[in-house]
């Protein structure tokens, strides 16, 4: 069996690393040969947003590096479509595997579908119900043209049912969450970032376009983080997009916020293990907070991981400074239950591979 894996952005490296591991284990156990061809679209390209994940997580070196980045959505997706199609025509895989909700996801799925190559979508069925998010558009369209949808949660399954996917000749499989695999595999290999000395800090990551693209929202979020930092150390690995906008909007950052460069996955695992709570607008980091039993304040208006809000471990505040500070006080004064199994058992990679082999 031959699989072409299409990745391009940081969260996709973390997820694809786990399926690559399952493929490697399968081949080494003599269960038959699966060949994996990796296309890196180039959407994320900095060493600390890309290479470090390949090195730390043992992802095979990409067979094709398309180098497409820093373009508008249309130009980026269009160039990817054209270049991915060429590779697929040459490689003739049995499956194209796409992850999540980026431009690389939709470009990969569309290129494959048009030339009748089967598409499997990992992290299918998620919805924010906010069509202004580029991610929402990408994930809905990718789900619709896939042959197999691998859903992480009951919520994802319910979303697909509500949209009538069961009548669309698409196989839908609940697999659990592939990021839990990564958290489990790497939790014993955590690396303390050099710049971070103590523990029990607030870990923050901010990068969603809906926040970075608005001066007011970004200002409010950083103002709330500054107030939190006057009480507790805040550690913030700064995404390049957010860095760009902080400079562009001339937002003043409190010196009490410990800004560090984006870190590798092993450092992130250390930060998640040693923090007391998370403030983020990331999709993946919300779940990782739960995996590491940490409360999370989500500075967005909605989340794809609504089950975390329902069990009161994740608090949606948007970019409203007062709401963020209220949630902070709620988190420091309450104990929370992190023992409900929402995301499976950390063997999602094997379920995915088994399905690909049997279809
Ligand atoms: N991550 C990381 N280093 C960082 C920030 C995030 O390794 O400095 C990891 C994080 O732990 C998670 C993934 O990157 O596994 C999530 O990526 P991101 O927040 O960029 O994307 P999203 O999940 O919002 O799509």
TrEMBL record:
Residues 31-356 form the UDP-N-acetylglucosamine 2-epimerase domain. The keyword rRNA-binding does not apply. Its EC number is 5.1.3.14. Keywords: Isomerase. InterPro entries: UDP_GlcNAc_Epimerase_2_dom, WecB-like. It comes from the Bacteria. CDD domains: GTB_UDP-GlcNAc_2-Epimerase. One of its GO terms (molecular function) is UDP-N-acetylglucosamine 2-epimerase activity. Belongs to the UDP-N-acetylglucosamine 2-epimerase family. NCBIfam families: wecB. This is UDP-N-acetylglucosamine 2-epimerase (Non-hydrolyzing). It comes from Flagellimonas aequoris. The lineage of its organism: Bacteria, Pseudomonadati, Bacteroidota, Flavobacteriia, Flavobacteriales.
């Amino acid at each position: 069996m031959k699989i072409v894996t299409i990745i391009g952005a940081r969260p996709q490296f973390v997820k694809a690393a786990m399926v690559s591991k399952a493929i490697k284990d399968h081949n080494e156990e003599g269960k038959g040969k699966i060949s994996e061809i990796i296309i890196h679209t180039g959407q994320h390209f900095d060493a600390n947003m890309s290479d470090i994940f390949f090195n730390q997580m043992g992802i095979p070196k990409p067979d094709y590096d398309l180098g497409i980045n820093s373009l508008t959505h249309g130009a980026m997706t269009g160039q990817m479509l054209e270049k991915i199609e060429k590779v697929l025509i040459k490689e003739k895989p049995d499956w194209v595997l796409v992850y999540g909700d980026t431009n690389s996801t939709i470009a990969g799925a569309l290129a494959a579908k048009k030339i009748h190559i089967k598409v499997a979508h990992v992290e299918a069925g998620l919805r924010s119900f906010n069509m202004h998010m580029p991610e929402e558009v990408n994930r809905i369209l990718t789900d619709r043209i896939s042959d197999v949808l691998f859903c992480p949660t009951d919520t994802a399954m319910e979303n697909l049912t509500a949209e009538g996917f069961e009548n669309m000749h698409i196989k839908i499989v609940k697999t659990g969450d592939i990021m839990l695999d990564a958290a489990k595999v790497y939790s014993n290999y955590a690396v303390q970032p050099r710049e971070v000395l103590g523990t029990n800090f607030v870990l923050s990551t901010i990068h969603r376009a809906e926040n970075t693209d608005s001066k007011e929202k970004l200002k409010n979020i950083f103002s709330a983080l500054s107030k939190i930092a006057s009480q507790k150390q805040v550690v913030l690995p700064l995404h390049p997009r957010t860095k760009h906008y902080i400079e562009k909007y001339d937002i003043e950052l409190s010196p009490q916020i410990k800004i560090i460069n984006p870190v590798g996955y092993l450092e992130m695992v250390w930060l998640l293990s040693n923090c007391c709570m998370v403030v983020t607008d990331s999709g993946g980091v919300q779940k990782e907070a739960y995996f590491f039993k940490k409360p999370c304040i989500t500075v967005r208006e909605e989340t794809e991981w609504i089950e975390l809000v329902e069990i009161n471990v994740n608090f949606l505040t948007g970019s409203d400074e007062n709401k963020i500070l209220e949630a902070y006080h709620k988190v420091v004064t309450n104990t929370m239950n992190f023992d409900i199994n929402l995301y499976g058992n950390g063997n999602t990679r094997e379920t995915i591979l088994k399905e690909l082999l049997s279809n």
